Structures are given as structure tokens and as C-alpha cells.
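Appendix B. One record, verbatim.
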Amino acid sequence: MKPDAISPLDGRYGDTCRIFSEDFSETALIKHRFLIEGQYLIKFLLRTKGRLPQKHVKIINAVSKADTADIQKVKRIETKGTKKFPATRHDVKAVEYRFGEKLASRGLSCYIPYIHFALTSEDINNLAYAVMLSSALNKRLLPKIAEIRECLNYSAKKYKNEILLARTHGQAAVPTTFGKEFRVFSARIQEELNYLSRLRLNAKLNGAAGNYNALCASFPRVNWLIFTKDFIAHISKMFKVRLRANLFTTQIEPHDSCARLFDSLRRLNTILIDLCQDMWRYISDGLILLEVKQTEVGSSTMPQKINPINFENAEGNLGLANALFSHFSAKLPISRLQRDLSDSTVERNFGVPFAHSYIAYLQILEGFSKIAVNSLEAKKMIDLSPEIYAEAIQIILRREGKKEGYEKVKKFCRGKKLTKADIWAFIDSLKLNPEINAEIKKIIECGYTGLASKIASMEDYAG
């Protein structure tokens, strides 16, 4: 942890978020550029020259693996310059020059003219970012989201019969169960996971304005459309990610598929914010209890406090993540004419909402490890709100064809504080058939939770 860091991702949460430096740091970006430049050089030479000695392929692959010295040299070429190269003030060009130096040191100077041949920096960058995003999603976020879903499924089954007072508009409504409410969140999460499992990020490799101008001018007999498809399929396989060639671009890949990714993650996080707020309310009402940890402090002045800090922390981090995801989705698909550079600094922040989301997911999982349903309090709340059975009474009356069944029940119970004895007396006052009278009372005594327990136990989401 760095206590003097500006961002809590590097400071307070530094130990947790350090793993994202492998995915989104400047070092990670440069390493991915090296790898993609190397793969392009190999595939380009094979396609245009017809052959490439296997030993040269091995050397190029080795050169493509950037180490710490390479990263430092690239940044020096970009910002300060060296004896050989003046400061480029261009990050991808600096990678190209360093790549050439390494090739020369391995005796392959003959290939230097073909490094980054006829490409624009965006051809390399869009592939690098697509790989980085896909990799971080698959390695970091999706496993934790899946854990949350499994945790919700476990809780749904564990508490499928634990009765809970449902509230609509904040008012006592009808009974439900804790398990069914957890299952709702699980199903919502699964729907987004299904979407993400099918999502492929678009990538381009078509030059300065998306027309293959320089490639066609230099090698007019090559089918560059097929080359693009094959190359991006190769990158997908190499990095084990889901990419798709976009042949219809300007200088930049329009980022529409990235926007779809960010929108999906934002929807997922919004679902989890909803979950956190519900958990906060259940804990506040005493319906869910938090584990007592004697070593922890809940307040600097009130020693009795045990706070729902995990769910509060998660809600805050999810909100931060969503603010950035929303900005990414709104900003990145827009570029003046064939391109402007306002996307560059935005892309460098991709890791920030990923890290905030990751922190939130860990907090939710920790929060669920500390909770238990307070069955006694939940049952007490039900018993103190017998008016919740008004729906059952009026609907049976209507089924039996009783005129103004709804209106009679409304007049009896609306705006009043009732007891269960009042409910029984009212049912008896209706002078119903004894079987119908008994049926209504049985529905009430059995909890009136409908299919809540069954829904909580369902395995598959039928969406």
C-alpha cells in the first residue's frame, strides 16, 4: 500500500488491485504492443515473402517479449530520446524503434523495414486494448461475478422457506421468502453473464483511414481483407480471447463493441447496487444479522455498533465504476471525422472501473460470509402486519363471485392497525360457506408465500 498515492486503487486498495497492473498498466500496454507487432511481422512476412525461416520466427517471437529494460527504453525514446533516436513524442513509434534495435542485435536487421509496415498506431493499439479488456474480464471480473451468483444461489436454497415481509412502495405488501428474493438477483446476474459469454470485441487492421491504402499500394496482389480476418483470428487464439475482425472502420475501430461491454458491466453493477441497498435495509431492520467480530470496531464513539460496511463499501465502489463505464460508452464511439485523439487518454483509464468493480465484488462476497437470517424477527414482523392477508381474502371472495369483495376488504382494513384476531373476526363476519371460510384461514396459516420456495429452488434461468 502506498499511503501517499493519489488514487485509493494504488493506496488503500493497492494490495488488492495490484493484479490489474498485469492487465492495464503502461507496462502492460507496451508489452501487448510488442507482442502484436511481433505477430504482425511474422504473418506479414509469411504472406508477402512466401516463407520465413523457422529460426527467424523463434527470434521474432523472443524479441516480442518485452522486459523491464525494453519498457524503460521505449519510454526514454518517447519522452527524452537517445543517441540514436530523437524523442518521438509518440508511444507506438517508440515501440517500433525499440523492436528494430532488438532485431538488429539478433542479426535480423533485414526485417527492420517491415516492422509496423503500412499500419497506423491504432491498428496496434485497438488490438492491444481488445486483448487487455477481454483478458481482464475473463481472468478477474467474471470469476468473482460467478462467485457472487453461486453465493446467491446457495442463500436462495438455504433460506427458501424463511418467510419475509415483502414491501412495495416501502409499505407492507404480502409475504415472500428470503430465498426467493436472493434468487431474483441470481437470475438477473445470470442474464448479463449469458450476454457477456457471447460478446466479442471488434478489432481492425486496415491502415490510416481504414481502406488498406498503403498495403494495397505496396502489395496489390494480397487479399488484405482475408489477411485481416486471419490475423485477428490468430490473435484471438493466441491470447484465448473472443475478438472479431471489423472491416468497416475509419482510422479507429469505432469502439461500439467496447461500449456494449461497458454497458453490460454497468448493468451488472447496477444489479449489485440494488442488492447492496436491499441488504442494507434488511440489516437495518434486524431481518438479517451480522456476525460479531470482537476485534472489530463499528464506531469511534458508539461501541455497540456493527455496521454493514461491506455492502456500503461495495455500493460506493460500484457507483464509481459505473460513472466511468457510462463515460466510456458515451465518449468512445464518437470521433471527429476519421479520427481524433481524445479517446487515447480515456482508454488509458480502462483499468480504473475494472478495479473498483473488483473491490466491490470482494466486499459483497465478504459481506455474505457474515450474514444470517433472523427468522424470529422476520416472523414477528409478519405477525405485526396481518393486513398483508387482505389480498388473499379479497381474491377468494372475487373467485366465489361475491359482489364488491375487494371494496369490502378495503373498507375493513385500509389505514388501520389490525390484529390477527381482527382478521379472523372479519372473515367470520362475511358468513361464507364453511369450506371457503376454512380455506381462507388455511391459506393465511400456511404463510401465503405462493411459489416463492419453488422459485428459490429453481436451477435454471429461463430467460
